[in-house]
Automatic annotation (TrEMBL):
This is Uncharacterized protein. The lineage of its organism: Eukaryota, Fungi, Dikarya, Ascomycota, Saccharomycotina. It is a multi-pass membrane protein. Keywords: Membrane, Transmembrane, Transmembrane helix. It comes from Candida tenuis (strain ATCC 10573 / BCRC 21748 / CBS 615 / JCM 9827 / NBRC 10315 / NRRL Y-1498 / VKM Y-70). InterPro entries: CysZ/EI24, Spore_wall_assembly. The keyword Transmembrane applies. It comes from the Eukaryota.
Length: 169
């Protein structure tokens, strides 16, 4: 299903006149990564193992919350919300070619929005039988959110260009 979600995400961006993001992401994907770069990325990712104790503790807390009826499900949804919000827009970050640092900066500027989106997505996806439907509606919602972000970004770029032209006159 991830491939279908990618197609839906890309289709919505294209439908909403943001083909440039989709095309640049696909062009970037076709480049082969040299072996030396792959090896250095693996070596650099070894530092991510330092978060293992945090992840184990977080998993234990989520497990214990899952034992509490009703309230536990809401706590789990809230704990997982920021990650779910970022995961929903992972395709956008890939298409834009954003680094981990750029993603962190973007996340910090829009943290409440990511928590809100992730909370609603987690709660909807926890409903049995309907969760398959909500996986796709969450993808569509994330894509439409990206359309809004891209429109704002392009509008800001146009405003900056206009300000530069006014200053030069």
């Amino acid at each position: 299903m991830p491939e279908i979600e990618k197609l839906v995400f890309d289709g919505i961006l294209s439908k909403e006149f943001h083909d440039d993001v989709v095309i640049m992401g696909k062009v970037r994907r076709t480049h082969k990564i040299p072996l030396l770069v792959k090896v250095s990325n693996i070596i650099l990712s070894l530092s991510n193992w330092t978060v293992l104790p945090y992840l184990l503790g977080r998993s234990l807390v989520i497990f214990l919350c899952g034992l509490v009826p009703f309230v536990g499900a809401m706590l789990i949804a809230y704990i997982k919300a920021p990650r779910r919000g970022l995961q929903a827009q992972h395709r956008y970050f890939f298409l834009r070619g954003m680094s981990q640092q750029q993603i962190r900066v973007h996340y910090k500027t829009k943290k409440p929005e990511y928590i809100g989106f992730g909370l609603v997505a987690n709660l909807l996806e926890s409903i049995p039988l309907f969760n398959l439907l909500f996986i796709f509606t969450d993808t569509i919602g994330a894509a439409l959110w990206v359309v809004k972000i891209e429109s704002e970004r392009k509008l800001n770029m146009l405003k900056e260009e206009l300000n530069k032209e006014v200053r030069s006159d």
